[in-house]
Specification:
Structural class: alpha+beta
Largest sheet: 5 strands, antiparallel
Radius of gyration: 42 Å
Shape: flat
Number of helices: 9
Length: about 600
């Protein structure tokens, strides 16, 4: 009897062990009936870890998320519980009844399959049947917002766009990436660096949310009228509660892929008023101070001094030209050196810009530098203001006197006229004959020189020929010289127009166009930056050279709307010449 009891206990333990070791692999769907505008979640769950998971082909659905993998491993009363899940999010392509076929996985050398699942897709519905799924919860609890500081600015008035991602307390975000960056056409823009994503608390539509600031951008409109700011688009993974809890009472979260957008914004840019607009207004908008200073006011001739024209304050400092220095013709003035000490934050541009002229007087005397005026549009009073610097007198103490120098020069041009007593003696009454007999050409120095010249020229011709062959064999050097000549050829017109902004940049853009048309055989209708970049990259041109070429094209476009200095034009010309030369050397 005791033996039978022991056998029974052993049998029960063996059956329990076999049952606990049974492998489960099954497909679970969030709903079997849904509208064509709804999403479906399907989970492939297993109670043991496996390899070589092969999902079914979702031919009648679009995979909008996944696969997401989650693993649960716990011990309860000494008993291990393991679960691994592959999750997909599907959008039906059309109405009808569809079958999701079997998925397979290999566990301990055995192949396991799920049962097929039938899904009924109906017409679009206003609201999903039953409780909201994870995707709906994510949509209601994640919001990307573009906060614009001013939607109706003046031309060249700065404002900011701050992008914030709001997340409700019940949900979370595990990762995110920018899918589409906003483009600020017709704006001067600068992004403000964000050091770390600090989580803050705030209100969204009256409810408490957590949020992070993803991007800060300062914009200055360069055109009037309604200008569009394209949206920022993010791909994010949202963690939403499943309504279940683990053994410690903590909510179990599920991950849902989501695409969020801040939406496009329209900025209505006002033109600057024409009433009382100064004739010398150069486009400065903000709050500025203006001064003209010199390093010295007394010096000797041929010594030098520096005159500095400086504007400082808050406003569009990088987007207007400074007034020009006017001096007497007796002072030699060199091209100014332009300096910018400007920082940009959420308040806009702040700092100073200046032009420093080097002046060298040639003669002794006093030379007044006439008063210089600077006009700007004041945003606080919405009116134009003018600041005029005082006259500066340059006193040259020692050097040549301008008047005496001119008198001496005039005196030196005079010549003494002496009368000729034989004025009318133009008829010769006597002759002086000489012999015309000449020495024979043979044996002269000229004869021997002409005779020996071909023999002397032969070694010279051999040297020249060798140098030419050596030069022709230098493939790299020839390519460099050819590239430089090509750059000068296409950029010659742009160089002639240096100093004339519109003519220069039109010629520069036309030169770049013609160069690419000749080298890559592309027509005008195909001339866009994306195709240029792809063609140059396909021709094995280095990426940094391609980026420089594209940036020059963008500068040509931007120059139509912004003030450009002589220094900037020269830099763009030099950069274009260098870039064309590099492209020509690298093209294959």
């Amino acid at each position: 009897m005791k033996f039978i009891k022991n056998i029974s206990i052993l049998f029960i333990l063996l059956a329990t062990s076999i049952a606990s070791a049974q492998v489960k692999f099954e497909a679970k769907v969030s709903k079997k009936k849904l509208g064509v505008n709804e999403r479906l979640r399907i989970d492939f769950e297993m109670n043991q870890d496996g390899d070589n998971f092969v999902p079914p082909s979702f031919n009648d659905f679009t995979v909008v998320g996944g696969p997401n993998t989650s693993v649960s491993n716990s011990w309860v009363n000494g008993k291990r519980s393991y679960s691994k899940t592959y999750s997909y999010f599907l959008a039906p392509k059309k109405r009808g009844t569809f079958t999701i076929k079997q998925a397979t996985i290999e566990i301990d050398g055995e192949i396991y399959k799920t049962f097929p699942v039938t899904i009924n897709v109906t017409a679009a519905v206003d609201k999903p049947n039953g409780p909201p799924d994870a995707s709906d919860i994510a949509s209601e609890n994640i919001h990307l917002v573009a906060e614009v500081s001013k939607t109706n600015p003046y031309l060249n008035e700065g404002f900011t766009v701050v992008y914030k991602l709001y997340v409700s307390p019940e949900t979370g975000v595990s990762n995110w990436r920018e899918k589409d960056n906003p483009r600020y056409n017709d704006f001067w823009s600068q992004n403000i660096e964000i050091k770390g994503l600090n989580i803050q608390k705030g209100l969204y539509k009256g409810e408490e949310y957590r949020y992070v600031v993803l991007r800060k951008t300062v914009l200055y409109p360069q055109k009037t009228g309604k200008l569009k700011i394209e949206p920022l688009v993010l791909d994010i993974t949202v963690e939403v509660p499943t309504g279940r809890a683990d053994i410690f009472g903590r909510p179990i979260m599920t991950k849902v892929p989501k695409t969020v957008t801040a939406g496009s914004r329209t900025i209505d840019v006002k033109p600057l008023p024409e009433v009382n607009k100064p004739s010398d207004f150069k486009g400065a908008v903000g709050d500025f101070t203006f001064k003209v200073t010199t390093t010295k006011t007394e010096l000797d001739a041929t010594e030098s001094l520096q005159a500095k024209i400086e504007v400082s304050g808050k406003g569009n400092l990088k987007l207007f030209e400074l007034p020009k220095l006017s001096t007497p013709s007796s002072l030699e003035v060199y091209e100014p050196e332009h300096n910018e000490n400007v920082r940009t934050n959420l308040s806009g541009m702040q700092g100073s810009i200046s032009d420093t002229y080097t002046i060298v007087p040639q003669y002794r005397g006093k030379y007044p530098i006439p008063p210089i005026s600077f006009s700007y549009f004041d945003l606080d009073t919405e009116s134009y203001k003018r600041i005029t610097a005082n006259e500066i007198v340059i006193n040259v103490l020692d050097g040549p006197d301008a008047a005496n120098t001119n008198d001496t020069a005039a005196t030196n041009t005079k010549q003494t006229v002496r009368p000729n007593t034989n004025t009318f003696s133009f008829i010769k009454t006597s002759s002086n004959w000489s012999s015309i007999k000449r020495k024979p050409f043979f044996n002269t120095t000229t004869f021997w020189s002409l005779l020996l010249f071909p023999f002397l020229a032969i070694p010279l011709a051999i040297v020249i020929r060798r140098n030419r062959d050596k030069r022709n064999a230098d493939v790299t050097g020839n390519r460099i010289r050819k590239a430089d000549r090509l750059a000068r050829k296409y950029l010659s017109e742009a160089k002639r127009n240096l100093g004339q902004k519109e003519s220069f940049y039109e010629a520069l853009e036309r030169a770049l166009h013609n160069y690419l048309k000749a080298k890559l055989n592309i027509e005008t209708s195909d001339f866009n930056k994306e195709k240029i970049e792809s063609l140059l990259t396909a021709q094995h041109v280095e990426s940094n050279v391609v980026s420089d070429f594209i940036s020059i094209l963008e500068n040509c476009e931007l120059a139509r709307y912004t003030p450009i200095t002589q220094v900037t034009m020269q830099n763009d010309y030099d950069k274009a010449a260098k870039t064309i030369s590099l492209i020509d050397k690298q093209l294959r």
